[in-house]
TrEMBL record:
It is found in: Cell envelope. It holds the Pfam family Molybdop_Fe4S4. Its main location: other. Gene3D superfamilies: 3.40.50.740, ADC-like domains (2.20.25.90). It is an enzyme of class 1 (oxidoreductase). This is Formate dehydrogenase major subunit. Residues 42-98 form the 4Fe-4S Mo/W bis-MGD-type domain. Residues 19-38 are annotated as: Disordered. Its cofactor is [4Fe-4S] cluster.
Length: 186
């Protein structure tokens, strides 16, 4: 049998083609009115799935400044238009109503979260990093110059791309951290 010939024998294919006299039975006005979510997009941005280190290409469809659909990018040499279940559901990362969109902070020994503006949160983080570096800095160990801190460590993740990992490594090295690792091993 010719390649693809067996598919043409499927009843639903014959119905949709109208070859078996029941074409209208397989269609409805609602079916004919349906349009792809991608059809009305104002812009389409190329992106990379954030879930793992594979780096599958994604097309992000946007209408009126809101993400309407995310699909696999057929031009991606990595995934050739395919996405795993997590990548297929990645639209929820930006559209789910339960997504946190502000910084929340729980004070030491506190029981409730309180909102903070981003600038305050970033200042708190910077202060703690600098204080930890200052308090744990080692200039020498056993008579050898080491210029390091053992109080700061970094663990990269599988969702980081090469450029992000490079910048993180440069930051940690500049801080004097020597415990820098990445768990992105596939």
């Amino acid at each position: 049998m010719a390649q693809g010939g067996w598919i043409s024998r499927w009843p639903v294919i014959r119905q949709l083609r109208g070859e078996d006299g029941r074409g209208d039975a397989a269609r409805s006005a609602r079916t004919d009115a349906l349009r792809p979510r991608t059809e009305e997009a104002d812009t389409v941005a190329r992106s990379v799935c954030p879930y793992c280190a594979v780096g599958c290409g994604q097309l992000v469809y946007v209408k009126d400044g809101r993400v309407t659909q995310i699909e696999g990018d057929p031009d991606s040499p990595i995934s050739r238009g395919r996405l795993c279940p997590k990548g297929s559901a990645s639209k929820q990362l930006v559209t789910h109503p339960g997504r946190q969109t502000r910084v929340l902070y729980r004070r030491p020994h506190g029981t409730d979260w309180e909102p903070l503006d981003l600038e305050t949160a970033m200042d708190m983080i910077a202060d703690r990093v600098l204080r930890t570096r200052r308090e744990t800095w080692q200039q020498e160990e056993k008579g050898k110059v080491v210029r390091r801190t053992m109080g700061i460590a970094g663990l990269g993740g599988a969702t980081l791309d090469n450029e992000e990992n490079y910048l993180m490594k440069k930051l940690y090295t500049a801080l004097g951290a020597i415990q820098v690792e990445n768990q992105a091993r596939i």
